[in-house]
Amino acid sequence: EEQADGQEAARPAEPTPPPPAREFAFGGPIELQDVFLPAQLRPQSYPESAEVLPPGAFSVRAVVDWTNHLAQTDRYLFDGESVSTVLKLRYAPWQRVEVGIDVPYTNRFDGTLDPFIEDVEQALDQEVQARFELPQSNWTALAVRDDGSRTLRMLDSDGAGDISLRSKFALARKAELGFDAALVASLGLPSGGDTMGGQGVSPGLALHAQLPFETVNLFGGGAMQYYSDATEQQFRLAPWRWMSYVGAEWRPGHSWFGLLAEYQVYGPLARVDAPLTHLSHYYAGGFRFYLPGRTTLETTVVENFGAIENRNSSDVSFHFALGWRFGN
């Protein structure tokens, strides 16, 4: 019995398990929102991560789009620039649930990008005729009927847009099923200024999904937005507007930056004035930087290219996003 006790005492201690490896995460899609001038009249749906914050976590995100607009037909001319800023606050009160609010602010002005864009178009031999015929750094946002009577006029001004209340519910989680999927409900409220928002509410519903691999994240989804007030001045917007997107992020070698690419399409913006009655296409590419302190920075370029139609969408946009996460 003494010998057994000695053997028990001499048994080596169990090795200490190594600390769990830090989870390799992705930031989700580029949160591109249609900021074409007439689209600014109402809240627009946009892509977002299918991953829900853990319970008790809180995030702050500032998204800025500096956009050049040029779209001309016999019925309208939208020519100018805008800087659209959205402050996005999110909180997760329970498992699988996230709530938040979007607070937008827009500045519209005649702009400074025209000379740069003209140089690029000439270098690529892709000149847009209207750009070289119209004055540089000009502001015009006007729609008319065939008889010349005005249906819409937007001023070069700045102001708050319609705020949006949001809630997200996780349908699937990567830890359980290997992918993330979430349902997002939103409600735009009539808080914006003149031509910055409507007089009604704008409810929306969206489905987002992402499939992460070792260093690549594939994502896609779609949304539908309804506008109870679909008329601005005498301009007839579409009461329903859908959006769909696909894209990917690659973080080579688990690095501190990711390469992003995304394609996004919106349903018709208006009930009148073709090609505003046609689909709007956007293509985006850029970088996401994963910084210390749970901070991310995105810099991307958004283009409509004109491969299908470019008179119903913004010309070029420089998209920036800075985000922080706190708590769990």
Features of the shown structure:
328 residues, mainly beta, two-stranded antiparallel ribbon, 4 helices, 9% helix, globular
Report what the structure shows:
With 328 residues, the protein is mostly beta strands. Helix content is 9%, strand content 48%. It is built from four helices and 17 strands. It has helices spanning 2-10, 114-123, 129-133, 174-177, and strands at residues 58-72, 76-94, 97-109, 140-144, 150-153, 158-160, 164-172, 180-188, 202-212, 216-226, 231-232, 235-236, 240-250, 257-266, 280-291, 295-303, 316-326. Strands 1-2-3-7-8-9-10-13-14-15-16-17 form a twelve-stranded antiparallel barrel. Strands 11-12 form a two-stranded antiparallel ribbon. The longest helix is centred in the middle third of the chain and has 10 residues, at 114-123.
Q: Enumerate the strands of the largest sheet in spatial order, edge to edge or round the barrel.
A: 1-2-3-7-8-9-10-13-14-15-16-17
In what range is the share of β-strand residues? over 45%
Count the E strands.
17
Low-confidence stretches: 18-22
CA radius of gyration: 24 Å
**What do the pLDDT scores average to?**
89
Q: Give the biggest beta sheet.
A: 12 strands, antiparallel, barrel
Shape: globular
Distance between the termini: 51 Å
- SSE series: HEEEHHEEEEHEEEEEEEEEE
Q: What structural class do helix, strand and pairing data support?
A: mainly beta
Per DSSP, the total helix count is 4
Helix content range: under 10%
